[in-house]
């Protein structure tokens, strides 16, 4: 496409995600301070020069008054962000309820909520209604800002209804949907009361993307088995209309981490940490404090390792960073207490007057601290029970070119499909296996470490987030062109 002055203009990309990539803090009646968060998706899209990206999403705060909403909208516009305002009740029912208490555990194979089935069934209905309502609110905002030719890219399990709402507005809108979590086996998905409605809503998109081929295959199976539609090598077909389904494994902005290591602030952190941790091998876990991350199982495996390897007890330390998340959901509150209890027990059993085996922090770290931590680590432990991809494993590898540390990685993380040959793969439910892998990693010779690291480093630096975003959007453009050609024939 061209501007009137003849200069080529970039295609507009409307990125719609539940959460905007900013945190907003209210400073006064009509003033806000904003801080951009640097997640994978943000850096992916910042790096893509062909598109002019705008974000549409929830700012993560309740803003009931019009003055506050107008002021926040103005402030966000400078960051190319457009807010969707959700009130407290919708957030409770849609975000805490349907998204994080129903879809999130189900998609990670943890099942539907078990307790008080009747109450759950009743609240299920109202939560699903709120989910659809919230998705419609996102669609209304997209529609307000949409211009012909724009690409609309919807993200994640929060917005499975959005493709349908958008196509109801304009069937010609180019709509892609990408899932950042696993898509479970069709036998799991079929337990969901709203299984068919959700699948049909997603199928309204032109292109549906997943991190791995397995997730894409599960989705196609769900459509064939539950909806009785036809699965083809290209995707899913319904009465002559094809929804393209494919795998697009995400990556990270590896250069940002590699360059980060040169930063004087990072170097200073590295120096301090090396002094403090001298004489001990460093093991690291960095996770959101979420049940899918398998933090209790990881701690139990570390405890078993200490039990069985007394000579290592004062020579190794586990740094576990557990970033609090979704703290209003009761399951997450229970998990926090459980983790604290296990850490306390292990430190009580194996600590001495001068050192404890586990440093557990309930907080997030800034980018510089995180880079430094990755760089001083000998063994990273990523033992998710299920994980869409897991980019902590990628970030660790990017920061290890000097040290060549070992990655212990769950076979149930999407990353196992790309870093499997370089990592030690484990079943996180098998505590003995993980404990043995810790011993194997700590004792691994440098030749083995070098070989494994090289494999992973090549992958992480070659398959970046930027490439992921470019591939998805160009595939979406191609899919729409192919569909137009098909209808003309
Ligand atoms: C996962 C989801 C993301 C989500 C993130 C943080 O990675 O796939 O969509 O944004 O967790 O969770 P939160 O609920 O805090 O947005």
From TrEMBL:
Enzyme nomenclature, EC number: 2.4.1.15
MF (Gene Ontology): alpha,alpha-trehalose-phosphate synthase (UDP-forming) activity; trehalose-phosphatase activity
Entry keyword annotation includes Glycosyltransferase: yes
GO biological process, one term: trehalose biosynthetic process
Enzyme class: transferase
GO cellular component: cytosol
Highest taxon of source: Eukaryota
Signal peptide, first to last residue: none
Keyword ATP-binding: no
Keywords: Glycosyltransferase, Transferase
Similarity comment text for this entry: In the C-terminal section; belongs to the trehalose phosphatase family.
Protein name in the entry: alpha,alpha-trehalose-phosphate synthase (UDP-forming)
Species of provenance: Malus domestica
Whole sequence portion shown: 74 to 562 of 929
